[in-house]
Amino acid sequence: MTQNIHDIQERKKIKIKINDNEYEVLEGMNIVEACDAYEIPLERFCYHRYLPVDGNCRTCMVEIETPRGRMLTIGCNTKVQDGMVIYTNSENAIRAQKSALEFLLLDHPLDCPICDKAGECSLQDNYMDFGRYDFRRIVPRYFKKGKAINAGDHIVLDQERCILCTRCIRFLDNITQTSELGIIHRGHASKISTYPGKPISNDYSGNITDICPVGALTLKEFRFKQRVWFLKKTKSICVECARGCSITMEQNFNKIWRFMPRENPHLNRVWICDKGRFSFKKYHENRLWNPILNQNEIDLTQATLELENVLKTYHWNEIGWILGPYSSMETLYIAKKYFGENVYALIPPATGKKDELLQLPQEYPNEQGIRFFGMNVHQQELQSKIEKEQIKLLFIVEIDIYRFLANWRELIEKIQALPYKIYFTSFQDETSKHMDLVIPVRSHAEIEGTYINATSLLQKSEASIEPENSFISSSAVLLSQIAYLAGRIPRIFSSNSEIYNEFKNEYEELKQYSFSNIPDFGIKLSLPKIANEPFQGVKVDFNIFMIPETQLTKMR
Amino acid sequence: MENILILTKRFSIPNANQLEVALKHGAYSSLEKLFSMKPEDVVEEVKKSNLKGRGGAGFPTGLKWSFIPKDTKKPIYLCVNADESEPGTFTDRYIMEYDPHLLIEGIINTSYAIKSHTAYIYIRGEYVKQYQILSRALEEARKAGYVGKNILGSGYDLDIWLHRGAGAYICGEETGLIESLEGKKGQPRIKPPFPAVEGLFRSPTIVNNVKTIASVPWIVLNGGEAYAKIGTKDSTGTNIFGVSGHVNQPGYWELPFGMRFLEFLEKYPKGVKGGKLKALIPGGSSTPVLTAEECEDLYLSYESMLAHKTFLGTGGMIVMNEHTDMVKALKTLTRFYSEESCGQCTPCREGTSWLDRLLDRILNREATTKELDLLIEISDNMEGKTICALAAACAMPVRSFVTKFRSDFEKYVKPISIPVHKVAEKIIQKEPIAS
After folding, report:
1. Could you read off the pLDDT of B218-262 as tens digits, one per residue?
2. Are strands A232-237 and A246-252 parallel, antiparallel or unpaired?
3. How many Å from the N-terminal Cα to the C-terminal Cα in chain B?
4. Number of neighbours of residue B81 by Cβ within 10 angstroms
5. Nearest C-alpha of chain A: how many angstroms from B167?
6. B172 φ/ψ angles, rounded to the nearest 5 degrees
7. pLDDT tens digits for range A467-490
8. Using CB atoms, which residue from A61, A182, A187 is nearest to B349?
9. Residue A514's closest CA among A528, A496, A527, A526?
């Protein structure tokens, strides 16, 4: 993607006129992109910034001046030229735009009240902005297409609602290159269909429901669950692998209902993998709300007393700390900065699925954070320290080490033999069964924090939901409390953003960004990358520049 | 002038579709001269001849050939459009049936001119007999050395492939044909890029109609200027005019352009059957219809048709007598177009079926006069707003039928109905209820 950015700087700027106003755009853009850059309203269905142009919906009609007079043309397949004169609001253009919408709605079932897409449907939005409101569809509707067809593991297809924009077909042809969908029949009997007996099954299938401008493709996981206008959205990142795709977490009644990709041209464009998309479920499963002491639930006050007692029993130098790439930058920072020599960061083996698009084998979000702070990753050293009884009390922070039993058997056996082990976690997992004291902390969805992904992009994630037990704190804040108890830091930090604002001053690259100023696209760091840029094998030409921020949030 | 035969010269000879008979009557005689010329000179001759594409659009053939990029490194392809499926058009089939060697000769000439070494004949799937004749002729020509490596020792190679369509009207559109030939669903491509730059297999491609290509050997043999002398100034050469409908003797005749239509109608199809002339569809069903009055000063040429705001199209005329129900005639056409729309562009996919359903309504006597205006407005909204010309091909007849024969339509429709509450108001005000 960086090459693309260089391209942009080299590209010539040209002047065009849209609706009698002069604008400066980059050579090679098409008219729809030029309109987007200056927020000139222009309706579209089949055009999508990250897919090849198809030009079948015929709604982005504009008039351009030619030597033979004004000519109607589609904006998405017409490249801007120097001195081009474009009208998006001339009489002919508006008539063409309105009539195309009228044609689209001719056989649309208008089942908006029971349609899951209602509220974020391009057909609704465009009709509000560009539609003609007088009714003249006096012929009977032509219904003979399928409803609620099971089209794959996650996808339900409704052929009647479909407006045949072929965005889903182009996504499956060009991005995943699996081509499960196609159009069968001809004329106005055309419909989207899978091949018989071959459902949509790829790791990115959820994306076709996002780009579907109407309710033709819906997610089984979200169907009939929530109305989209009730959902509160927070900008976050996906923590399922080291890619750390930009997402929005959407919650209502303090429950997360879905993850949606958030546009980030430098990272995930507008796509996320199904593993990340459906990881929202885990934030409500196996949650730990109360501390556990020797397999018995206790309340937080008792746990605090127990923790204080334990800390008094052992000398600070006898306490060991295991952190992992699952924690946010803030947690890692507190441990690294204030906890002395016995802080170790373990990086689990990269055993996940890898592909050319987004998925990386490292199934944790912040491996680069460990490198950024230069933390001690020597497992052998930790092992020998435990052996020599230099470490007697061990804190394990947000890393489920027993999950990697096969790889770390020796270490885990030694840890098992320790007199006292404390585990900070959000979920009940394998490790929590073996610990003396388990203290709940806020999960990723409940904290704000920063993470550095595999391509060295520092991104921030905001808190989406409140924990049920609102007294539990994030691991970073909890660690700062412990450090305060031990007299190692002068004050307790009350939030992760405060910790970030503390450490950013130590790094030249971060200095200018306070937590609230971190851009939505993230901050590119000069840290060596551990993975390639995404979409290496996918050649879809698109323009990622001159898009105002307000437009980015609108993209579906 | 009238008896110059370019395309149908061997039609009257029995078994002219066999190579030995055809050879006796001058088939492949242009090749010797062709190979002595440079390809650029052939293109120049065709440009001089002012030959226009006979497929319907009437685009100058030589100009089309010259759009191929000069320095291309990709192979150049020739596609022969034999997917003759326009209603009312039935002339290409006779060339393939009676004189396939003329077509093959034309393909050799054209391929040589555009420096192509591979040509495809895309033949309509329903033309089974023509396919068999053409494939046999191709085999004969291959054996005799007219097709293949080093044709007649000239060092020029050409391979010709015969491809059968699967029965879609849209595959007669040049980019639809290319998609279909590539093995995809027959859907026109978005332009630009034009096929001459990026067509079949992403290489420069020329798509020409059978009649256009069959005219090329004569031009090579006799020179472009000689061809330009036939016909009128803007419509040079000859064309095969096919006439169907209410005439005493339906059929096809090869004629130079420029004959007066009424004279032609009396002389060749022997006049209108069963009454007076009411309407004429001049060049395949997608061209705007003409009334009897408009036919008075109509000549069989591109420019005269344009002056009457219609097109010569393919030259397949449909004649209708005074007893024709224009609504039912139009319904036949809209049914065809709504079936044959490929379904890619919104205005065409939805518009053609909307027009069809509106005509159903009119025929069921449910419609009001308002719907006649709606027919015209939908046509306006469809035409020129799609990737290919199918939407226009449906919109043009609808608009011309409704405007020119409105009285026929008005017999079916009710006057504009008055909403119930308006009737109630009038009753209260004791006004006479008028429509």
Report:
1. 999 999 999 999 999 999 999 999 999 999 999 999 999 999 999
2. antiparallel
3. 59
4. 27
5. 12
6. -85, -15
7. 988 889 999 999 999 999 888 888
8. A187
9. A496
- Partner-chain contact A103 B381, CB within 8 Å: yes
DSSP state of A61: E
Q: Do A154 and A258 form a contact (C-beta atoms < 8 A)?
A: no
Consecutive H or E run containing B189: none
Chain B residues in contact with A186 by the CB 8 A cut-off are 168, 170, 339-343
Strands B316-321 and B238-245: parallel
CA distance A485 to A511: 29
* Residues facing A85 on adjacent strands: A17
Residue owning tokens 């960061």: A345
Tell which residue, A195, A187, A61, A75, has the closest CA to residue B187.
A187
Rounded distance between C-alpha atoms, residue B38 and residue A385, angstroms: 89
Nearest in space to A227 (alpha carbons), one of A206, A258, A248 = A258
Sheet holding B159-164, edge to edge: B159-164, B118-123, B77-82, B205-209
Q: How many CB atoms lie within 10 A of CB B34?
A: 25
**pTM, 2 dp:** 0.90
Residues ≥6 apart with Cβ < 8 Å to B274:
B246, B321, B323
- What six digits make up the tokens of A381? 């050293």
B280 beta partners: B290, B319
Query: 3-state DSSP: chain B helix, strand, coil percent, rounded to 5?
Result: 45, 15, 40
> In chain A, helix, strand, coil percent, each to 5?
30, 20, 50
Tokens 């934030």 map to which residue?
Answer: A283
Interhelix angle A122-130/A91-106, rounded to 10 degrees, is 140
Tokens describing residue B320 = 């209708």
